[in-house]
Design goal:
The chain is of the alpha/beta class and 432 residues long. Helix content is 30%, strand content 24%. The chain folds into two domains: 6-30 and 297-426, Lyase, Ornithine Decarboxylase, Chain A, domain 1 (Beta Barrel), CATH 2.40.37.10; 37-291, Alanine racemase (TIM Barrel, Alpha-Beta Barrel), CATH 3.20.20. It has helices spanning 21-28, 37-54, 71-79, 89-97, 114-122, 133-146, 185-195, 216-236, 262-280, 293-296, 330-334, 423-426, and strands at 6-8, 14-16, 19-20, 32-36, 60-64, 83-86, 105-107, 127-130, 150-157, 179-180, 199-205, 242-244, 286-289, 300-311, 317-321, 340-342, 352-357, 366-373, 381-385, 406-410, 413-418. Helix 2 (37-54) runs parallel beside helix 9, helix 5 packs across helix 6 and helix 8 packs parallel to helix 9. Bound molecules: ligand LLP. Ligand LLP binds at residues 64, 66-67, 85, 108, 168, 170, 207, 210, 246-249, 290-294, 330, 389-390.
């Protein structure tokens, strides 16, 4: 199986985190989003321990909330010693409501409103990762009004193209995020930030993209960032404590994706950073990383009930399910690949080539095309693996389809972490 939390039970049913997925469908209904809590915790502790071991004292992994945001995930993150990266006032609100220690939260985003900045400061947010000059001014102004100095990092673009999907590639100079080193604008912004009284600049951030399997793009970005840090520290006589390398480690979605050893990657990046820091004549900065996908993706699985199996003579077969792009828009958006099983007959040969079609009134609502599974019939269940990241987080109510629940699995037990949306929820905001 693709990951060791996926298996086949005695009945031939697919199991996840050691539990029978068909029984879970019967208990909770479908579509159903499962989350393997031990896997989430295990992935977090790989980062926490590896960063402690290979980087300097105050280095931390930040959970990239955008990958999966609900109260329970922040509680787990806090318990596992993760910091967090949030990108909106909404994520901030969820983190705060979950009791996440706000001094360990970093506020990202390319357009923070005055109201969001004020809300974050009211909540005692630790760090802003500043994207642009306008928000720098506003953070400085609001901190001044409150009579304190706000800790910040600046988001910079190192000009790296890691060759992932164009829409999830963010480190190039021509990007809506951050400020470019290459054009000289980053240095201008830094000089300006250093002249302000109510912000304290402690370092830089860069994020080059997502679903990256090699470590070279991270090392290339780090080289540019460290050389630039050395230049700034020498020119402006400042000490910069942090380098935040963003997120982006890839995840195994299908059998032909590589198996990734995150601890080894972190160790290799650390030794690269150590050598490059020495070459640049600076102390190795403390490192922050922002993993999202590699924390939650393989802890997730989505289950659906099959409605019809339609073979168009001379063309192809469609298996229709009771969810689709509303709970997982990633195939429609990016053509993302997934591993799919017939959950009722995971032990049978996967010899039926078909397209898994969602239930939206939209022909692009597909989950996968031309994949092989054991042929299902109406009422059986389809499992889509590795759906923990950017599925629930990107879900919608298109066609007024309610969002599925998130059911957490742990040590043979299951519990609802986010309840299923109801039809009443769908009209909850409508005026009479
Ligand atoms: N930090 C920053 C600043 C980011 O922009 C991102 C992702 C991350 C961290 C986390 O990256 P990860 O470790 O998850 O790769 N919706 C797309 C992914 C968009 C990623 C956006 N930024 C998808 O479904 O593939």
């Amino acid at each position: 199986m693709l990951h060791d939390n996926i298996g086949i039970g005695e009945s031939g049913h697919l199991t996840f985190a050691g539990q029978d997925t068909v029984a879970l469908c019967e208990q909770y209904g479908t579509p159903l989003m499962l989350l393997d809590e031990n896997r989430v915790r295990g992935n977090m502790s790989v980062y926490v321990n590896a960063m402690k071991k290979h980087f300097t004292g105050d280095s931390h992994p930040l959970l990239a909330s955008k990958a999966l945001c609900f109260k329970g995930i922040y509680k787990i993150a806090a318990e596992e010693g993760m910091f967090t990266d949030i990108v909106s006032a909404g994520e901030l609100y969820v983190a705060k409501s979950a009791g996440f220690p706000m001094e360990n939260a970093f506020f990202h985003g390319s357009n923070k409103s005055d109201a969001a900045i004020s809300m974050a400061m009211d909540m005692g947010l630790g760090w802003f990762i500043v994207d642009n000059r306008e928000e720098l001014d506003e953070i400085n102004r609001q901190a001044g009004e409150r009579g304190f100095v706000q800790n910040i990092l600046l988001r910079l673009t190192p000009g790296i193209d890691p060759h992932t999907h164009a829409k999830i590639n963010t480190g190039r100079v021509d990007s809506k995020f951050g400020t470019a080193i290459e054009t000289g604008q980053a240095e201008e912004l830094i000089a300006y930030a250093l002249s302000l009284n109510n912000v304290a600049l402690h370092g830089f951030h860069c994020h080059i993209g997502s679903q990256i399997f090699e470590i070279e793009p991270f090392c290339d970005a780090a080289d540019i960032m460290l050389a630039f840090m050395a230049h700034i520290q020498k020119t402006y006589c400042v000490k910069l404590k942090y380098l935040n390398l963003g997120g982006g480690f890839g995840v195994r979605y299908v059998e032909d994706d590589p198996v990734i050893d995150y601890e080894k990657n972190i160790a290799e990046i650390a030794s690269h950073l150590r050598a490059k820091s020495a070459e640049c004549g600076i102390e190795m900065p403390d490192i922050l990383m922002e993993p999202g996908r590699s924390i939650v993706a393989d802890a997730g699985m989505t289950l659906y009930t099959v409605g019809s199996v339609k073979t168009i003579t001379g063309y192809k077969s469609y298996v229709s399910i009771d969810g689709g792009m509303t709970d997982n828009p990633r195939y429609a958006l990016y053509g993302s690949r997934y591993t799919v099983h017939n959950a009722d007959h995971a032990d049978r040969e996967a010899d039926f080539v078909c397209t898994i079609a969602g239930c939206c009134c939209e022909s692009g609502d597909l989950i996968q095309e031309d994949i092989a599974i054991a042929k299902p019939v109406r009422g059986e269940h389809i499992a889509v693996c590795v759906t923990g990241a950017y599925n629930y987080a990107m879900s919608s109510n298109y066609n007024k389809i309610p969002r599925p629940p998130i059911v957490m699995l742990k040590d043979g037990q299951s519990r609802i972490a986010v309840r299923r949306e109801t039809f009443a929820d769908l009209i909850a905001y409508d005026a009479e």
